[in-house]
Write a structure and sequence with these properties.
Blueprint (H helix, E strand, L loop, with lengths): L7 E8 L11 E5 L4 E5 L6 H8 L6 E7 L2 E2 L5 H7 E4 L10 H8 L3 H13 L16 H14 L4 E5 L7 H14 L3 E4 L3 H4 L4 E4 L12
Parallel strand pairs: 3-8, 3-9, 6-7, 7-8
Antiparallel strand pairs: 1-2, 1-4, 4-5
Helix pairs in contact: 4-5
């Protein structure tokens, strides 16, 4: 029976690299299917690590993260990967042409057909198939990375500054597609264009460093 995602809960979660103190104030949030949670905050407040923690990729946090009411640690890494799709700020898709990379990353004919349909919807030119993946622009990498994720039909997207390399036209296509797909997830961003998509926004407030002890 296929796992069905219905909730992700962050309960008093703080990014923390032991033995150092937490980077931000506790986060309390709940995410449901089809909804978007945005993370905002200054650089260095742990946004990327918090995104990775929500996927089970990092345990550098305190507090509790639960999926469907169960701690993340009770779910296998394979299950978490099958449910979610992660797009880092600077995707690395591998070496070779774009066509070769896509062939390696997608498993089924259905996924490849979906990818073909997503190319024009994200403004990706058919010509990039013969381009080395490492020679794509930042915006092309972001859009191709999203297309590869959506071709897999994840139940939850986790996106790290996904519009940072996109111009207004590409960003509009990106946001329109997310809306049409009726998918939700978590993203970090300072981009007002993307923040309009959020159903709930959490601002990561830096934790003040404790005063140094005086001799």
């Amino acid at each position: 029976m296929q796992f069905q995602f219905y909730s992700l809960e962050l309960d008093s979660v703080q990014t923390a690299f032991a033995p150092d103190p937490p980077l931000h104030a506790p986060v309390q949030a709940e995410l449901r299917p089809g909804k978007w949670l945005a993370l905002r905050g200054p650089s260095g407040t742990g946004k990327t690590t918090l995104l990775r923690s929500a996927l089970g990729f990092s345990e550098d946090y305190t507090g509790s993260i639960r999926m469907n009411g169960e701690p993340l640690q009770r779910h296998t890494a394979a299950l978490l990967r099958s449910v979610s799709g992660y797009l880092p700020q600077r995707p690395y898709l591998g070496q070779g042409t774009t066509a070769e990379v896509c062939r390696d990353l997608l498993r089924t004919a259905v996924e490849h057909q979906r990818l073909e349909e997503l190319f024009p919807r994200l403004g990706l030119s058919p010509g990039i198939r013969d381009t080395a993946a490492e020679r794509l622009s930042g915006g092309e990498l972001q859009r191709l990375g999203l297309a590869l994720l959506l071709a897999r039909r994840p139940q939850l997207l986790v996106l790290d500054e996904p519009t940072s390399g996109l111009d207004d036209g590409s960003c509009a296509q990106f946001l329109s597609l997310l809306d049409q797909m009726q998918i939700g997830g978590i993203f970090s961003s300072h981009d007002s264009r993307l923040l309009q998509l959020a159903d709930h926004t959490v601002v990561l407030e830096p934790v003040a460093a404790p005063p140094e002890a005086t001799p």
